[in-house]
Amino acid sequence: GAPQTRTPTGAETGVPKTAKGQQGAYLTTANGARLRDTDHSLKAGPRGPVLLQDHHLREKITHFDHERIPERVVHARGAGAHGLFTAYGTAEAVTRAGFLKKGRETEVFVRFSTVLGSRGSADTVRDTRGFATKFYTDEGTFDLVGNNIPVFFIQDAIKFPDVIHAGKPHPDREIPQAQSAHDTFWDFVSLHTEAQHHALWNMSDRGIPRSYRTMEGFGVHTFRLVNEAGETALAKFHWKPKLGVHSLDWEEAQMLSGMDPDFHRRDLYDAIEAGAFPEWELGIQVFPDTPEETFAGIDLLDPTKIVPEELAPVQPVGRLVLNRTPTNFFAETEQVAFHLGHLPPGIDVTNDPLLQGRLFSYVDTQLTRLGGPNFTQIPINRPHAAVNDMLRDGFHQHAVHAGVAPYRPNSLDGGNPFPAGDAEHAFLDVPVTVAQAPKVRANPVSFDDHYSQARLFWLSMSPVEKEHIIRAYTFELGKCYHQAIKERQLQCLANIDPVLCEQVATGLGLPAPQPTVPLADVTPSPALSQVGQEWPAD
Ligand code: HEM
Questions:
Q1: Where is this cross-link: 3'-histidyl-3-tyrosine (His-Tyr) (predicted)?
Q2: Exposure pattern of 155-168 as b/e (b: 16+ CB <10 Å)?
Q3: Closest ligand 1 atom, CA of 357?
Q4: What are the respective helix, strand and coil percentages of the chain, to the nearest 5?
């Protein structure tokens, strides 16, 4: 039979921004009983004590007492917006995903965020920015949970708690909120040298974006695409902002942190309300799906590596326009729950060990953050595709499921076997062969190269961008208390580039060490510089 829709789709439940609150002729309790007075507690006489029997008082205060939910363990500070994605059709040869077919329009919700600060922290701190997009496709929701930096600190998700502990405020003093101005962060990245590439992007102007509207976005990991014929390709996702990539100057960023800590949130909201809708183009870099899973010698499973755009051009596949601000921040921006496992037919995962761990982490944390297993029923998280699952009960269950036999096949509820479904639109795991190999706690050897791409990034910068990077390292390392940590990080900089190391060492008043690894012979990639990243005029 036809799938039962468990809950109305998000489209049906969207509350317009023009809707007014509390416009009825009278207020009620949560149970619908009319209230005569919500301003005075029930007392034993005007001067007497408040009575425990005042159930309206208790309901009002109790609900208030529970208004807050835990903030996200990372990416707590964010701002979101609704929009529309329109596909060009240029990805049809490599993926069967329906939302990428020519002319297809898909509603989206995007949440931008900082990583390390708490919910109330300032927007313009030096940090990585989250760029998470929920595509409500008619084949199920697709979440592209990316960042504004194309590489990550670590190569294996098992280190994620460690890198976040190193980046979050010191446990004794709870300072600072900004990412990098303290010892534990620099201790981590100088000991776990795979983090050097990401840290260099953070020290560049990319770490202090001018606006969410002027950030690139990256899916970071390599994904596996499948087309109608079942052929596979490997791919990386990119968002290119129409306004080009622009950053703040460090002095601007610091002043704004004090004068307008909501700078990015306000900018996004005001731009959309003024009709200046932010736009991005979604693009993919496509690589042959070879058994080695490498391209031009670059390991595609290593999330600390990019593939320069000169070697694999970013091919535009669609356009995103953000055109509507949330009606209610809590209901939408705070309760939205992204998950890398939300994949439509035609897009699948790879064995990137960071990606594999993320597949577990998001739902796990959301079970706590959103109070149980039914958060996909919250309006912002509801798929726009019909849902017909056999999940039952649990905290905050909103569906009234009919029938007695939530299992297939059964002989009671219609008795039909597991329906074949609409095979054309079904998700299929790509039957990739898994190697017969001994179990190990080890990385591929290629993951040991921690410096060549950091050097590539540094050498691709314009003179002014290099100057900003030197100032950023000097400022941030200057805040460390431990001399040994500064020296160890200078050693890492020497392994990236001796000029970079010397300049920072001079700023810190320390000697510049010699490289301990051979310097990689790399060709600069102009696409890594922010200069000249605007779209051509329409
Ligand atoms: C949240 C990106 C690595 C765990 C987020 C968010 C983004 C993001 C954009 C914010 C989502 C939102 O706006 O609600 C990334 C990227 C990564 C990465 C691009 C690396 C390529 C990891 C890893 C883990 C992890 C390795 C854990 C093993 C989390 C958790 C949240 C989160 C627990 C909070 C989710 C919630 O409370 O809803 N991440 N992340 N992330 N990430 Fe990641």
A1: 339-362
A2: bbbebbeebbebbb
A3: 28
A4: 30, 15, 55
What is the pLDDT averaged over residues 268-281?
98
Inter-CA distances, 472 with 179, 326, 497, Å? 12, 35, 16
Please list the alpha-helical segments (H only) found in 141-249: 160-167, 183-191, 196-203
Confidence band of 413 (pLDDT split at 50, 70, 90):
confident
Mean pLDDT of 47-65: 96
pLDDT of residue 425: 73
**337: Cβ below 6 Å to ligand 1?**
yes
Residue 308 · residue 295 · CB < 8 Å = no
ipTM confidence score: 0.94
Q: How far apart are CA 206 and CA 129, in angstroms?
A: 9
Is residue 224 within 8 Å of 234, Cβ to Cβ?
yes
As a whole number, mean pLDDT of residues 331-343 equals 98
| Residue in 448, 355, 308 with CA at minimum distance from that of residue 156 | 355
Kind plus residue range of the DSSP H or E element containing 13: helix 10-13
Cα gap 115→209, rounded to integer Å: 14
Give the closest residue to 316 by CA, choosing from 282, 289, 288, 265.
282
Please say whether the beta carbons of 235 and 287 come within 8 A: yes
Q: Which residues pair with 284 in a beta bridge?
A: 237, 315
DSSP state at residue 412: S
For residue 361 and ligand 1, the question of a CB distance below 6 A is answered with yes
User: How many other CB atoms are found less than 10 A from the CB of residue 425?
Assistant: 16
**E strands present in 88-192:** 105-114, 129-137, 140-147
d(CA 195, CA 258): 29
Segments of 154-253 assigned E as strands: 217-218, 223-226, 232-241
Question: What is the C-alpha separation between 101 and 317, in angstroms, rounded?
Answer: 9
d(CA 443, CA 109): 35
Neighbours of 474 (CB within 10 A): 17
On whether 111 is known to bind a ligand per the annotation, the reply is: yes
User: Does the global pTM surpass 0.80?
Assistant: yes
The conformation of residue 514, written as its DSSP 8-state character, comes to P
Residue-wise pLDDT for 197-239, tens only, equals 999 999 999 999 999 999 999 999 999 999 999 999 999 999 9
Cα–ligand 1 centroid distance for 362 (angstroms): 7
481 annotated to a ligand binding site: no
Q: Look at strands 217-218 and 223-226 and give their pairing.
A: unpaired
Q: Is 39 left (phi over 0), alpha (psi -120 to 50) or beta?
A: alpha
> Is residue 6 within 6 Å of ligand 1 at its C-beta?
no
Q: Is 68 annotated among the ligand-binding residues?
A: no
